[in-house]
UniProtKB/TrEMBL annotation:
Superkingdom: Eukaryota
Name under which the protein is recorded: Sec1 family domain-containing protein 1
Family: Belongs to the STXBP/unc-18/SEC1 family.
GO biological process terms, semicolon-separated: vesicle-mediated transport
Source organism: Cherax quadricarinatus
InterPro entries: Sec1-like, Sec1-like_dom2, Sec1-like_sf
Amino acid sequence: VYDQYVNFISLEDDMFTLKHQKSDTLSYYAINRGDVKDSDIDLLMDSIVDSLFSVFVNLGQVPIIRCQRGNAAESVGERLDKKLRENLRDTRNSFFTGLSTDSFAAGQLSFQRPLLVIVDRNVDLATPLHHTWTYQALAHDVLNLSLNRVTVTEQDAAHPTNRTKTKEYDLSNLDSFWRAHKGSAFPDVAAAVETELEEYKKAETHIKGLKSNLPDEDAIDLLSDNTAKLTSAITSLPELIKKKADIDKHMSIAMGLLS
């Protein structure tokens, strides 16, 4: 039996979420609803602590914890601190190699430890209600964006008058356009899509031109030169096809945001 400690989901290189498939049970509403019981809050706090513990087990580092007093943030901070110390005391099974509770007492922990700041959502309720018009924010607010996957409803080309269909697209850092423009204002995104489309059309025209302009067999040097260019163009085709798919994807998302 192996404990994997993967109670979190990394959405980006610098962002993770503690939510999972049963996200409604781990939410602001679940903690603050009027009929919540102490036992329910304890389960929620333990779930948050287990997830944060998993994050730092994977990092292999003990965090410096800072939190507010007198609210849920303090409860999470204290429980996480206790869980970390208990693991450090068990030197044979500790997940943090080379560290122990003696390291705390002697002040031998690295100065490069990560800082974990835990803040209660009640401190800043306005921010979740502030809807910006950046690409990522609009996709989340207007479309169904969850765990880096967005669902877009669009007209069915075969039946444009009375039928719609849904498509799902993955949005991750593997998508160079998304990586570059997720934080851009929507008008800038629309302009960038147009630019990408123009570049694709130029590349496509260039490849077609190479194919149609192959010289006669008598012109050996020109034939060799054009063949080399055509071979290079063919080699770049997979990348060009992927680029076209990304352009179509983001055009579909943009249309979904406008509709």
